[in-house]
Amino acid sequence: MKFSRYSHKNHYFTKDKTNNLPFLVLVMIFVVACVFTFRYFNATLPIIFTSFLLAVLLFITFALRLVQVLNKAIPDDNGFLFTEREYCIDEEGIHEKSIHGTSLIKWSAIQFIRTDGDLLYLYLDRIYAIIIPARSFASEQASQQFIQYVKSKID
């Protein structure tokens, strides 16, 4: 889950930075509609209160549905995504071995490299990365040598 938060925080889920303009336009339209309604129609306190209550209920329903959908998107703890893996590096690429099988990830599949604290991310696309903890290396120098080696293979 730390990987997902890191990727989302750094906008790796989207090609462009998030644009808040559509949300701000909708807020402005809502404010203008409210001002127009209060100014040109005789909006009484019970109508305003009922409208506000319906808006709150709609928002709560939307928020609960969103949480429900997002919870279904979280991978299983014992599923494929969170399985412990063993990696071997050679000229061909990265050989991955787990209880589910083995695979070869060619160097050309790595899109970019990022580090965050004690974790090294080798991104295969915007939302999938091989995560290598710092404890996998004998020293900080070995970690930096590995990063340089990977960069030389993907450039």
Structure notes:
- It contains 4 helices and 6 strands; from the N terminus they run αααββββββα.
- It starts with a helix and ends with a helix.
- The protein has a 3-stranded antiparallel beta sheet, with no helix packed on it. A 3-stranded antiparallel beta sheet has the order 4-5-6, with helices on one face.
- β1 and β2 (93-98) form a beta hairpin.
- It is 46% helix and 20% strand.
- It is elongated, with a radius of gyration of 24 Å.
- The relative contact order is 0.10.
- With 155 residues, the chain is α+β, with helices and mostly antiparallel strands.
Largest sheet: 3 strands, antiparallel
Q: What is the topology, as strand order, of the major beta sheet? A: 1-2-3
> Strand content of the residues, in percent?
15-25%
Topology, number of strands: 6
Give the overall shape, derived from the CA principal axes: elongated
Give the count of helical stretches.
4
Instruction: Estimate the mean pLDDT confidence.
Output: 79
Given as residue ranges, the uncertain stretches (5+ residues, pLDDT < 50) are: none
Helical percentage = 40-55%
Rg, Å, rounded: 24 Å
Query: How does the helix and strand content classify structurally?
Result: alpha+beta
Helix and strand string, N-terminal first? HHHEEEEEEH
- Cα(first) to Cα(last) distance is 29 Å
